[in-house]
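Reopening this one. Same input as before:
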Amino acid sequence: MINLFNTHVETLSIHRVGNKSRNEAIFISDEPYQLNDEIMPLLKEFFFKSFREKEENYFQFAHDVDLEYNDMFNLASEIFTNPSDFHEVSKKITKHLFEQSNHPHIKNGEVYISYLTNVSIDNTVVDAIGVFKSEIKTDFLQFEEKEKNLEMILQQGINLNKLDKGCLIFNHKKEEGYKILTVDSNRYDARYWLEHFLSVDAFQDENFYTKKYLKFCQSFAKDVVLPAEDKKEEVMFMNRAVNHFAKNDEFEETKFLNEVLDNPDLIPEFKNYKVDKGEKFSIEDITTFPIANAAVSDARKSIKNVINLDTNIQIKLDFINPESAEKFVEKGWDEEKQMYYYLVYFNKEQKS
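Same output, byte for byte:
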């Protein structure tokens, strides 16, 4: 988890990169930008808003051969080792970004590189580097008094409500390639930012494995539990899976299967499915890991607990009290109507 509330923008350098394939230039500022109290809160909101609103999926610098060959990893390490060289290194970062800006779809724009202090991540206060890029220009009107008339002047500028691209590089977990958060509002050139400029992979921590394993369970529920049982059992399997994660600090696969799968015949099915699909979810060799509570809460919100029937009726099952569905909902077959039915027991109707 990150907390940017007390984060301070210590230094800011602003440059501009063009598109190399269109022979657009690069502009490097000689000096850092002189920050002031008027613009500081606006910039902080512009830089950080997208990260507060975005689900925290962390990345890390990576390289096929060795991490030391990753340009951005080396440049970030240079800054963290000697922050006084920040502006000079910001020029190198901008030149590196310019070298990747050679696809026709890539837009030119301003690059804001900042040194951040008092950043909280994983309950640890660290420094961080922010690299942000604005690409889309917005039309706006300025007004000027000329004699006895008010004149309109059409100008273009940056919309401070939307960051086009950005990343936060935390001085945390350096051995793994630093923890990184990134946003990209304009997905027409996603490889350019993530792969070519940053060269990152997903950060494989407890948050990563918790999310991936629960997504794998959703896939298993849909592909195996639903055809073998019914929609109710699909929903209840995911309910039991999430509740198992919620009440345990450590995940252990054998314990999970024995507790969550009511039908023991599905245990070998689960293991076979993991052999086939585990690599897709990056859990093929994972049987134990610490559980991230925040990831469990996010997963609970995304899992559907509704049975939709072709008779335009919905049955919503309670994830807070799953035993209710087990005890008070029965599925059957009506020979006369040649239709399935759900039988629901209750004492009285609740007022909404």
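So the earlier flakiness isn't reproducible anymore. For the record, The chain has ten helices and 16 strands.
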